[in-house]
Design brief:
The protein contains 5 helices and 4 strands; from the N terminus they run αβαβαβαβα. By secondary structure, it is α+β, with helices and mostly antiparallel strands.
Amino acid sequence: MKTLMKDKFLSFLGICAKAGQLSSGEFMVEKSVKEKRAKLVILAGDASENTTKTLTSLCHNHQTTAIIYGTKETLGQAVGKTYRASIAILDDGFAKGLLKQYQQ
């Protein structure tokens, strides 16, 4: 059952990528948060301690929700890229949908 939910989350993330409603990579995610365009930030569970600390602090300061999910490899595959330690969702609807999947 847990695997099925994980697949839904990653599938939803892939749809978000195809719609062009995300940015990925530490620099682009940081820029999106600072510009208040990011509605949700997803961090890989195996992201470096420095990346996790920096982005969670930035999200806290800019009142942006941040969650930890999957690995760099699974997040990268979901969005059609190589390894991704961080992803910013830029659309409210996609952010709400992903949070709903995450909380199940």
